[in-house]
Amino acid sequence: MKPDTFDVVSAREFAAPATQVWRAWSDPEYVTQWWGPAGFTSPSANLDFRIGGTSLVCMRAPAEFGGQDMYNTWTYRRIEPMNLIEFDFRFTDPTGASIPPPPGVPSEVVRHLVTFTSVAADRTSMTVIEFGYPNEQVRDQSKAGLEQCLLLGFRPS
């Protein structure tokens, strides 16, 4: 039986303690270092990192893809320090007002769950799950972008 929706699951281990990997999601200076796939940058991340808070994050496309800024919000459902972050991801305009998502994105909101596990004093495993894609193709595109963000840009220090 075919599932109704498809989820992105991406895991990665970092040579950094959990406190540093956690900061990649909770500190705006860290978010702007890694948010965006290959060639993209993140000029701003205005974080309201608390349950019920909403962060506004900007990703800038490279010139060859139009150079436009794309915005999204992360509205936090759950935060368990050093363990997990659950948030709703939305495509927005620069003010944080919702805009229609790109074709194939499941709905106005994509739920995310990020978990952190200490593997050793200086190693952390992180898993990101994005829920509810309508088909495998859109799921795979989202996973490829996410993995480029996590692999190419994220540099805990």
Topology of this protein?
Layout lengths: L5 E9 L3 H9 L1 H7 L6 E6 L7 E7 L8 E12 L3 E9 L16 E12 L2 E11 L2 H18 L4
Antiparallel strand pairs: 1-7, 2-3, 3-4, 4-5, 5-6, 6-7
Helix pairs in contact: 1-2
Key traits:
7-stranded antiparallel β-sheet, 3 helices, 7 strands, Alpha-D-Glucose-1,6-Bisphosphate, Chain A, domain 4, alpha+beta
Describe, in plain words, how this protein is organized in 3D.
This protein has helices at residues 18-26, 28-34, 136-153, and strands spanning 6-14, 41-46, 54-60, 69-80, 84-92, 109-120, 123-133. The chain is globular. With 157 residues, it is an alpha+beta fold. It has a seven-stranded antiparallel sheet with strand order 1-7-6-5-4-3-2. The chain has one domain (6-153): START domain (Alpha-D-Glucose-1,6-Bisphosphate, Chain A, domain 4, 2-Layer Sandwich), CATH 3.30.530.20. It contains three helices and seven strands; from the N terminus they run βααββββββα. Helix 1 (18-26) packs across helix 2. The longest helix is centred in the last third of the chain and has 18 residues, at 136-153. The protein starts with 5 loop residues before the first strand and ends with a helix.
CATH third-tier fold name? Alpha-D-Glucose-1,6-Bisphosphate, Chain A, domain 4
Number of strands: 7
Class based on secondary structure composition and strand pairing? alpha+beta
User: Residue-averaged pLDDT, rounded?
Assistant: 91
Q: Which CATH class?
A: Alpha Beta
CATH superfamily: START domain
**Second-tier CATH architecture:** 2-Layer Sandwich
> What is the strand content?
35-45%
Question: Could you state the order of secondary-structure elements as H and E?
Answer: EHHEEEEEEH
**Total helical elements:** 3
Strand order within the widest beta sheet: 1-7-6-5-4-3-2
- The low-confidence parts are none
Number of domains: 1
Cα Rg: 15 Å
Q: Distance between termini?
A: 45 Å
What general outline do the C-alpha atoms trace?
globular
Reported for the largest beta sheet, the result is:
7 strands, antiparallel
Helix content: 10-25%
